[in-house]
Amino acid sequence: MRFNDLPTPSFVVDENLLEKNLKILNGVMERTGCKIILAQKAFSMFATYPLIGEYLSGTTASGLYEARLGYEEMGKENHVFAPAYREDEIDEIIALCDHIIFNSFSQLERFGERVITAGKKIGLRINPEHSTQEGHEIYDPCAPGSRFGVTEKNFRPDLLANVSGLHFHTLCQQDADDLATTLDAVEEKFGQWLPQMEWINFGGGHHITREGYNIPLLENCIKRMQDKYNLKVYLEPGEAIALNAGYLVTSVLDTVNNGIDIAILDTSATCHMPDVLEMPYRPPLLESGEPGEKPYTYRLGGQTCLAGDVIGDYSFDKPLSYGDRLVFGDMAIYSMVKTNTFNGMALPTIALQDKNGDCHIVKKFGYQDFKARLS
Ligand SMILES: *Cc1c(COP(=O)(O)O)cnc(C)c1O
């Protein structure tokens, strides 16, 4: 099937673009000896896991279901971190994962013995209390009052015997300079415990595949921890794996005017791309401009009843009309994993564009997918 024949709305992941990212990440692994794993919460299109598994070392999960998905569909290294684990899930999690990361010493005391008995590795999430982002408190695990990671003040060296690695995750869409200053804070607060560890996990938020990212500095950061403390280094980016590797294709259903031209699309910000409202951000739209840049400006809105279900204002060379197809870019990450069926909205079809440019529908959703989540 051709791209232009795909039904709308559809998420389309481009295998060539995905592989381009994977090659960049694999290059970092090859040159440094670090391991990079996929943070599934950003991108869980498991039809692509065989391809991802050719280049990366495995997966990481936020809990039982993602852990099981990584185990079933990639079957390589499988890590997990959750702020707290449930008694009725922890044994299955330990069976599925090789690295179990605890958020606190009380979690370690509650479940650590079982991890060791199963022959798996224990990690501890630390909080270096070093904020490197501004104005984005919901994405800052180092913000005051954060529930993530053990602070220096609460550190318990007496309980470290079974801990083989430390884990921090403090970045979001950031470059390697912020990683470097974070490592300074990690060393200052926790450096004395690093020599007794086997590994360190730098978390996610490294925008490695973004144009202009400072890969040599990242590699220096990795080597610094390898050489100084003899540690195996893990990175677990989500975004960087499928950054700019997919689209959301939609159609114009109607145009109206209320002091401004408005187009209603067969998609929804709140159902299909909730980060547009939550983050918030303006998704790139192919062949469009900023408002007023091209002759015809429209506010693009979704099909739900939410007044704020607006994707943004964009301008075009020609007036929009019924049936026109619009293609949003960078729609592989934090999109498919966050969809919902509010208002009874259908979920977008999921498709793959292969290396020859042919498109294949991987999954279609219908009424049953909406109904099955309710009762
Ligand atoms: C979200 C998250 C990641 C991935 O972050 P990206 O910003 O998508 O790279 C990795 N590790 C942990 C613990 C996370 O919470």
Q: Which helices and strands appear, and what pairs or packs with what?
A:
Elements: E1 10-14, H1 15-32, E2 35-39, H2 49-55, E3 58-61, H3 64-73, E4 77-81, H4 87-96, E5 99-102, H5 105-117, E6 121-125, E7 163-167, H6 176-190, E8 199-201, H7 215-229, E9 232-235, H8 239-242, E10 246-257, E11 261-265, H9 269-272, H10 275-278, E12 296-301, E13 310-316, E14 325-328, E15 349-353, E16 359-363, H11 367-371
Parallel strand pairs: 1-15, 2-3, 2-9, 3-4, 4-5, 5-6, 6-7, 7-8, 8-9, 11-12
Antiparallel strand pairs: 1-10, 10-11, 10-14, 12-13, 15-16
Helix pairs in contact: 3-4, 6-7
Bound molecules: pyridoxal-5'-phosphate.
Describe this entry's structure for a reader.
- This protein is of the alpha/beta class and 375 residues long.
- It has two domains: 3-11 and 246-331 and 339-371, Lyase, Ornithine Decarboxylase, Chain A, domain 1, CATH 2.40.37; 33-242, Alanine racemase (TIM Barrel, Alpha-Beta Barrel).
- The protein contains eleven helices and 16 strands.
- The protein has helices at 15-32, 49-55, 64-73, 87-96, 105-117, 176-190, 215-229, 239-242, 269-272, 275-278, 367-371, and strands at residues 10-14, 35-39, 58-61, 77-81, 99-102, 121-125, 163-167, 199-201, 232-235, 246-257, 261-265, 296-301, 310-316, 325-328, 349-353, 359-363.
- α3 runs parallel beside α4 (87-96).
- The two termini are 37 Å apart.
- It binds pyridoxal-5'-phosphate.
- Pyridoxal-5'-phosphate (PLP) binds at residues 39, 41-42, 81, 169, 172, 203-205, 236-240.
- It holds the Pfam family Orn_DAP_Arg_deC.
- This is Carboxynorspermidine decarboxylase.
- Residues 117-331 form the Orn/DAP/Arg decarboxylase 2 C-terminal domain.
